[in-house]
Each structure stands twice: as C-alpha cells, then as structure tokens.
Design brief:
The chain has helices spanning 4-30, 33-63, 81-108, 112-136. The chain has a single domain (4-66, 75-136), classed as Ferritin. The chain starts with a helix and ends with a helix. It is built from four helices and no strands. The chain is an all-alpha fold.
C-alpha cells in the first residue's frame, strides 16, 4: 500500500498536468500572427503529451488505492507569446521538482513501478521545459 504522502504527490502532479492541458490548449488557440503560427503547434503537441501524463498519473493513483483529482492547479494563460512561454516554463519547472520528489518517495517506499513511470514523465517534462526555454532564448 502506498503512503498518503506518495498519493498526495501523485495527485499534485496530476493537478499540474490538468493545468498544463488547459493552459497549453488555450494558448494554442490564442497564438496568432506570424510568430503565433510558428509556436501554436508546440503548445498543442505538448498539451497532448500532458494528457497522456495525466492519464498515467490517474491510472497509477487508482491502482494504488488513491482517488485521482479532477481539479487543475491555477491556470495562467498569458496575453503575449512571451508571457505564455514564461508561464509554461515556470509550470514545467514546478512539475520537474514534483516528479523528482515522487521518484524519491517511490524509491524509499520500494515502489519501482511508480518510480519508473514518473522517471519517463520526468524525461518528457524536461523536454517541454527545454522547448519553452528555447522559445524564450534562456537556459
């Protein structure tokens, strides 16, 4: 049986992914102009990857006896493309930290399946952060 702390961590990660899905899909719709056309598909593609992550977190939570949340974290869409990318980079960096915390907890609790699942999601999330950092030309 998973600890409540691990279940809470998975639910936090799920809430972050629900935020990302909504936030990035809205940004995909709102991205206009020459620059917007160039990044619109990035928002959409990452939103679709976040849907898969959310499903994975929900499935794992349910398997471990938890109740998956349906409430996203606070959504911050932004007005300009720069504001959008800045909000997204911040969200991805927060998700990276939560994934690392979950991996640590899963390791301590002897739960290799959760650890492996979240390691894969972490890899994707770091890739998302890199895309947003490149959009902003920061590292």
């Amino acid at each position: 049986m998973a600890s409540q702390k691990l279940l809470d961590g998975l639910n936090k990660a799920l809430a972050m992914d629900l935020r990302a899905i909504i936030q990035y899909m809205w940004q995909h719709v709102m991205a206009i102009g020459v620059e917007g056309v160039a990044v619109s598909t990035v928002f959409k593609d990452i939103a679709m990857q976040e849907m898969k992550h959310a499903e994975s977190f929900a499935d794992r939570l349910f398997y471990l006896g938890g109740k998956p949340t349906t409430k996203p974290m606070e959504i911050k869409v932004g007005v300009t493309l720069k504001e959008m990318a800045e909000a997204d980079l911040k969200a991805e960096n927060e998700s990276i930290e939560v994934c690392k915390e979950i991996i640590k907890m899963a390791t301590e609790e002897g739960d290799p399946a959760t650890r492996l699942l979240v390691e894969k999601i972490l890899e994707d999330t770091e890739g998302h952060a890199d895309k947003f950092a490149r959009m902003l030309a920061v590292k």
